[in-house]
What we know:
The chain is an all-alpha fold.
Amino acid sequence: MExxxxxxxxxxxxxxxxxxxxxxxxxxxxxxxxxxINSFRIIGPILxxxxxxxxxxxxxxxxxxxxxxxxxEIETLFPKFSLFWKAAGLSFIVGLFSALWSLLLIIPGIxxxxxxxxxxxxxxxxxxxKILDAIEESKRITKGYKMDILIxxxxxxxxxxxxxxxxxxxxxxxxxxxxxxxxxxxxxxxNNSSVIKK
Length: 198
């Protein structure tokens, strides 16, 4: 089955109908906690490295559920604490690998980041998976689709610019839009059932 970027986005908007309010609230809570953690002097960056991946895992879970037309609650933002260290470790290894690839040149670093872009979704679907296995699985399902993933992400730039003009308020709508669209894409890649076309 083939699907284009417009269809991905259209599906995301349809799935968000009736869930915009709770999605915006989820983004506000996520952003507030993130800023709160980083506001601590000296230990802020350390706390951020530890807690931010766990927060991202929660927000990713939230939008993945929306993409699958499942019910969501604010509690969805807070995954099982048993995944805390795995999320932190996964984020650290992915960041390390991406940085090492970036040492070669910017392009290899971007390609690596795109290859690892689905690791948190994979962790959500497979909580017992090992960190390196999650990375390998992300590389497997994104093989041949990295340019498409990049172009899909770039297609939101116009919305991001408009969001800046609204003093950031627009990002409260953009984040759910992007998050749900990417979650739909993940499931398509996982099932290997679609190809993104222009």
